[in-house]
Specification:
Number of helices of chain A: 10
Order of helices and strands of chain A: HHHHEEHHHHHH
Number of strands of chain C: 2
Strand order of the largest sheet of chain A: 1-2
Oligomer: heterotrimer
CATH topology of chain A: ABC transporter involved in vitamin B12 uptake, BtuC
Radius of gyration of chain C: 21 Å
Distance between the termini of chain C: 37 Å
Structural class of chain A: mainly alpha
Distance between the termini of chain A: 44 Å
Order of helices and strands of chain C: HHHHHHEHHHHEHHHH
Structural class of chain C: mainly alpha
Shape of chain A: globular
Number of helices of chain C: 14
Largest sheet of chain C: 2 strands, antiparallel
Largest sheet of chain A: 2 strands, antiparallel
Chains: A mainly alpha, B alpha/beta, C mainly alpha
Helix content of chain A: over 70%
Largest interface: A-C, 47 and 47 residues
Strand content of chain C: under 5%
CATH architecture of chain A: Orthogonal Bundle
């Protein structure tokens, strides 16, 4: 285990964290403001990736494809909101879970029908290919740095938006007490639509950005959705700040855990049992973390709703 | 001097920067009917919620029957003999009226970790439940779905549930809220009959009922206890009159 | 005591013979006759489909207990099935093929997991609970995929079905089918009793108004934990049956998609009825059999159907049945 490897994995952890934040931010806002559990949020992420691949095939330029894919993802999200989600805001969580589960089934397989089951790829945009030397002996892919940078920039922008603008104040108020905001005369439906649209775009953006470095395939949103749930549960539902802290925490813990679990265990037991137990324990880490946080703070680290 | 059944010691509760309960020290003597009055927003329901255990105080102690119950959850206090009715009716609308009350009996009658046997058929639970319903005058509605009762009948059910627990201290949070003249008189009659059998804390806005029932009255204004005294003393106190009663009594 | 009061005292909740007894009796009768029908029609695979339905019905009935009666929406129920199945699989891999050992182990492991995770999950409410059960289920799934000596991602084949007291009593498909039927019947009757018992009444009351129940004197969380552990144990029981049915265990048994499908079965049949869980699992697996024969991507059709059911047919099949029944001209 070298220092360089450690630093690389920290960067990888940051990258995962940033990705998780982009997905979790929309999820936590929608949940906080509209009390709506959206299991289908993960397919927004998947759709972003697929649309990026599709548009890239048409225009040949990543950034044009990005803009088009973002627009298409937003449109699609709003369509879903209009057709299905809008009717679920008043329903109980069980109904929301089942309905959005149905949408996941539909979209995961619809994507298979349209694009086939084989994984697709997207090339990294020319300007950002290759690696860069961060320190002596430490090379890191440029695109991953771009992801980290853009994620942090968006996080900063989102925080400024939510804290300093009027619409941000409405969102924070809505996350704390939605019926009150509505009673105060705010057009709550329009607020919902804006929140939802934003969340959709963030998830889509995450999918577009990740597409060049992973394989785009049906169901790719499912596992990351559950991680996003862990993020917002730990961070506190309705809280952007919580989502940010928790996302980075989980990104780091998961990545470092998976990379070094075997090595750490080897310090305590023989190499063979370490190799067996390592991966198992690594996969458990973030859930144990979640359990510990929730045991101490059942409402998460930074709950939006007061005690 | 007999020990107070309920002793509140320096209770404080803040919501943000607002002191909803501000250093309240209060004694409720066994067997008395102790009313708590105050204008809207005085913090009466918050005080009741702290006594029954639904809200933890920020500071202070709650001593019930000689035991410090401040840290105990509501169910533990209920089993020690503290029962309450809610201002906004809190019943089980999907259950029959009888079952609503039978559950209150079940909580203090043997173990509920029984997985077999139809609970709804247990006469050991149904008989006391029916008795409580008779006390509050709605025994004839025993098998109606609780959600279908009229507002006044629901309030009566609320009281029946509280009584079925055979409490030593009964907290009544605005039992007359939203019910008509006739129903109010019936409730007052019932509470008069219960006086002496158990200790009661009554939060109410209906001044006629309060003065008919109360042995002592505590006045709460903006979270602070202004005074505690007999109805005559409270009526005459100039501070109370200006702060509160002036609006109520014509 | 007045006449009205006396009458009230003697009366009990009216039974609905049609719904309460006839429907489940009918369902079990059909299950009992299925092997006969399969033999007559020459379609032996029906036996396998039927057994699968019953195995998942065991899990679905347990889940309905949680979702429909306790109001606890557990999105990690498949974890218990998986744990039970892997108990059978791992024991078998080490040469222990005795059902009288495997079954208690399967149930005990599931109950332990339910207890440990339940303590954490039940500290939260509402949507947090859903997400946390989902997360814990995922945790078990990933642990299973990382168990290389037991097949990892690919799963593990089991040498043979469990013996009962040393005898290969459930080796034949027919024998296993009837064994599973008995297990489902026992599970169903147990849950029925539970729901009407003192314990069940506390759960149901807590679902409607937890604050009220607390102020009456019930420690709601404790009761919910017991319910969660019972449901977990029954899930493990289903896992034991599943492993024996397929003679194979895989992490897919505890995927979150499987958990979702279990909830779908409960909703499809009619949540909070127990009979609904029986109907729902049968209907879902039948649909899967039939539709997947038509197209590989049958979920493209099924997904929207689910959404429509949620939006317009909340009572599921049972609700639909009641609605139709009310419209029939009665004597």
């Amino acid at each position: 285990m070298s220092a360089t490897l450690f630093l690389v994995q920290i960067l990888n952890g940051l990258q995962l964290g940033v990705l998780l934040f982009l997905i979790a931010a929309g999820l936590t806002l929608v949940f906080g403001v509209m009390d709506f559990i959206n299991l289908a949020h993960g397919v927004q992420y998947m759709l972003g990736a697929y649309l990026a691949v599709a548009f890239y095939g048409l225009v040949g330029n990543f950034f044009v494809a990005l803009v088009l894919a973002l627009a298409a993802a937003l449109l699609f999200g709003l369509l879903l909101e209009f057709l299905v989600f809008r009717h679920l805001y008043d329903r109980d969580h069980l109904d929301q879970v089942i309905a959005t589960f149905g949408i996941i089934l539909f979209l995961n397989h619809a994507v298979r029908v349209v694009w086939g089951a084989a994984p697709l790829t997207l090339p990294v945009p020319e300007f950002f290919t290759g690696t860069v030397v961060l320190m002596s002996g430490l090379l890191y892919p440029v695109w991953r740095l771009v992801i980290i940078a853009s994620g942090l920039a968006i996080a900063g922008g989102l925080y400024a938006l939510v804290t300093y603008t009027r619409i941000g104040m409405l969102v924070r108020a809505g996350a704390t007490n939605a019926p009150m905001v509505s009673a105060l005369g705010v057009n709550i439906e329009r607020l919902f639509m804006i929140v939802f649209g934003f969340g959709t775009m963030l998830a889509g953006f995450a999918g577009i950005m990740i597409a060049p470095i992973i394989s785009v395939e049906p169901g790719m949103g499912d596992n990351i959705l559950i991680l996003a749930f862990v993020v917002i549960v730990i961070g506190g539902i309705g809280s952007i700040r919580g989502a940010f802290v928790a996302a980075l925490l989980i990104g780091l813990v998961d990545t470092l855990g998976r990379s070094f679990s075997v090595d750490i265990l080897r310090l305590m037991m023989g190499p063979s049992p370490a190799r067996m137990a390592g991966p198992a324990i690594a996969s458990m880490l973030i859930y144990v973390l979640m359990a510990v946080v929730l045991y101490v703070r059942p409402a998460g680290l930074f709950p939006a709703r007061g005690s | 001097m007999p020990e107070p059944l309920l002793h509140l010691d320096g209770l404080r509760k803040n919501f943000g920067s607002l002191a909803v309960t501000d250093n309240v020290t209060l004694d409720v003597m066994p067997g008395e009917m102790h009313a708590i009055i105050g204008p809207n927003g005085a913090g009466k329901t918050t005080l009741i919620n702290q006594i029954s255990g639904l809200i933890p105080p920020d500071e202070g102690r709650i001593v019930f029957a000689g035991h410090d119950v401040t840290a105990l959850p509501p169910e533990a206090r209920a089993l020690r003999g503290l029962s309450r009715s809610f201002q906004i009716t809190s019943i089980l609308p999907g259950f029959a009226v009888l079952e609503n009350v039978a559950l209150a009996v079940q909580a203090r009658t043997g173990s509920s970790l029984k997985f077999f046997g139809r609970a709804a058929d247990e006469s050991a639970l149904n008989a006391p439940a029916l008795a409580a319903l008779e006390q509050t005058g709605i025994a004839d509605r025993a098998h109606v779905r609780a959600g279908e009762l009229s507002h006044g009948e629901k309030r009566a059910l609320e009281l029946a549930i509280a009584l079925a627990m055979k409490p030593t201290l009964l907290l009544l949070d605005e039992p007359m809220a939203g019910i008509g003249r006739e129903e109010t008189e019936r409730q007052v009659d019932l509470l008069l009959r219960l006086k002496g059998q158990l200790t009661m804390v009554l939060v109410e806005h209906d001044m006629a009922a309060v003065f008919a029932l109360a042995d002592r009255i505590s006045v709460l204004i903006r979270g602070r206890l202004l005074m505690t005294g007999t109805p005559a003393a409270v009526r005459a106190d100039p501070q109370v009159v200006t702060a509160y009663l002036g609006e109520q009594l014509e | 005591m007045s006449d009205a009061a006396l009458a009230a005292k003697n009366a009990t909740r009216p039974l609905r013979p049609t719904r309460d007894v006839v429907l489940p009796a009918l369902i079990f009768a059909i299950f009992a006759l299925l092997p006969v029908i399969a033999a007559l029609a020459g379609k032996q695979y029906l036996l396998d489909v039927g057994a699968r339905m019953m195995v998942f019905a065991v899990a679905a009935v347990a889940l309905d207990l949680l979702v429909g009666y306790a109001g606890l929406i557990s999105f990690g129920h498949a974890a218990f099935i998986g744990l039970g199945a892997y108990a059978v699989g791992i024991l078998s891999a080490h040469g222990i093929g005795e059902g009288l050992i495997a079954l208690p182990v399967a149930v005990a492991v599931s109950m332990l997991f339910a207890f440990l995770t339940g303590i954490v999950c039940l500290r939260t409410r509402g949507a947090y609970f859903i997400m946390i059960t989902l997360a814990f289920g995922q945790m078990v799934y990933f642990i299973a995929t990382s168990l290389a000596p037991y097949g990892g991602d690919n799963g593990l084949t089991i040498a043979a079905r469990n013996t009962i007291a040393g005898w290969p009593l459930i080796k034949s498909d027919r024998a296993f089918y009837y064994f599973t039927l008995l297990c489902l019947l026992a599970t169903y009757l147990f849950c029925r009793a539970l729901v009407g018992s003192r314990f069940g009444r506390v759960l149901r009351g807590a679902k409607e108004n937890a604050t009220r129940m607390a102020t009456i004197g019930f420690s709601v969380r404790r009761f919910q934990l017991v319910a969660y552990v019972i449901a977990g144990g029954l899930g493990g029981f289903a896992g034991f049956l599943l492993a024996n049915l397929t003679e194979f265990v895989a992490p897919a048994y505890m995927s979150w998609q499987q958990s979702g499908e279990l909830i779908v079965m409960v909703i499809l049949g009619g949540v909070g009825t127990l009979d609904g869980a029986l109907l729902g699992s049968a209907a879902y697996l039948l649909a899967e059999e039939w539709l997947s024969g038509i197209t590989e991507n049958w979920k493209v059709i099924f997904g929207p159907i689910l959404v429509l059911v949620v939006l317009f047919a909340r009572g599921g099949l049972i609700g639909l049945g009641s609605w139709l029944w009310r419209r029939l001209p009665h004597a």
